[in-house]
Amino acid sequence: MLSAPISPERAGAVLTVDLAALCENWRLLNRKLSPGNDCGAVVKANAYGLGAEQVAPALHDAGCEIFYVAHLDEGIALRKILGQSPRIIVMHGANPGFEKETFRHGLIPVLSTPQQILSWRKFAEDADVLQETVVQVDTGMNRLGLSEQEFMGHMNDPERFQGLTPLALMSHLACASTPDHPLNKTQLERFISSLSVFRTKFPAAKGSLANSSGIFLGDAWHFDLTRPGAALYGIAPQDGGPNPMLPVVGLQARILQVRCVDSTETVGYGATFRAADGAKLATVSIGYADGFLRALSNAGTARLDGIAVPVAGVVSMDLLTFDVSNVAGSAAVPGAMIDIIFNTHTVDDVARNAGTIGYEILTSLGQRYARRYLPANPSGLGL
User: Fold this and answer.
1) Going by C-beta distance under 8 Å and a sequence separation of 6 or more, which residues neighbour residue 118?
2) What span, in angstroms and rounded, lies between the C-alpha atoms of 256 and 344?
3) Residue where one domain finishes, among candidates 200, 233, 266
4) Tens-digit pLDDT profile for residues 102-137
5) Do 256 and 224 fall into the same domain?
């Protein structure tokens, strides 16, 4: 990772992050919830690649008081950015032996395994501390969380949760982006049952089930704490239908060279694209090292001077070629910027062309871009 900011003038590409749109997305999600529900923000993976140092304070200023990260080090870094006020929940919990570090930084670990629970219990008892935790139960994802047997074994043993101060019981939806998937209802029923049992021991414990997509399933899935992530950054929360979220990301790449092909010629590695006689090609300073996936070879599109231009050939590590034959010569010149991601060709659109999901495109955006942050106020809305 480069240590110093890159200026837009020097950069081969410019990534724009609209903090006002980001905050408005959080407000939209928050408005869908009942009063008293805490709408948090998932800022793991450096705020999905967009920069936690800029994204998290903007969301905090907008009213967000609970943040979610994946790893302990992410939580420690975020605590330095946000100060002591908000809750920061570490979804992967604390690795054995790092409970003290978690406590010292005021982080809330998610405890997903019997070993994590035992290690935290021992630390809390030995250090004589009270620290909020979140217990995760699996309801059908079969990824992280106590199995039903493990959960009931802990509930039936008066010592298993001794010394814990649970903020919430948590689970994770597997198919929330597909509203009519039967697993959504199954997981809801299992979570209601588990939460009811959990509250016999911890009456004040909150429930947390809904991610971005889960918020759109309806009130029954919301409980007390929601954990939106991708939707904050403009990714569509549900498959099919219109996307209610504002676009947050824009990406432009600088043209390095324009050439006209004198005869029918192939373009790029592997000679997979054949340019017609007289075709005009523009090569830009971006490639798969910058997160423009190789799967977009001969499949991606962009826009120059408002005109759609297709990817010509295989995506290289640092370079990418477009067929700009339909663009006027005055626009297709070295130094001009081609729009890669914009408000009508979003991260989700790029993902569809690549045969993947918006999450992968977003978190793959590279570190070599100059990054431009539009301010978190109404005047900053709209890329």
Assistant:
1) none
2) 25
3) 233
4) 999 999 999 999 999 999 999 999 998 888 999 999
5) no
* 359 is annotated as an active-site residue: no
Which residue of the set 122, 201, 269, 280 is catalytic?
269
Residue among 44, 233, 280, 369 flagged as catalytic: 44
Q: In degrees to the nearest 10, what's the CA dihedral of 98, 103, 105, 111? A: 70
Q: Token digits for 118?
A: 């035992």
Answer whether residue 379 shows pLDDT above 80: no
Higher-scoring residue by pLDDT: 177, 328: 177
Which are the contacts of 323, defined by CB distance < 8 A and separation ≥ 6? 275, 279, 280, 281, 309, 310, 312
Among residues 199, 233, 267, which one ends one of the domains? 233
199 lies in the same domain as 277 = no
**Is 269 known to be catalytic?**
yes
Domain count, the chain: 2
What pTM did the predictor assign?
Answer: 0.93
Angle, alpha carbons 247-252-257 (nearest 5°): 160
CATH number of the CATH domain containing 267: 2.40.37.10
**Residues 58 and 109 placed together within one structural domain of the fold:** yes
pLDDT at 291: 93
DSSP state at residue 379: G
> Do 143 and 185 belong together in one domain?
yes
Residue 331 has φ and ψ, to the nearest 5°, of -95, -35
Provide the residue range defining the domain that includes 322: 249-380
- Determine the 3-state secondary structure of 205 from DSSP: coil
* pLDDT over 90 (residue 361): yes
Mean of pLDDT values over 178-183: 96
Asked if the model's pLDDT at residue 380 lies above 80, the reply is: no
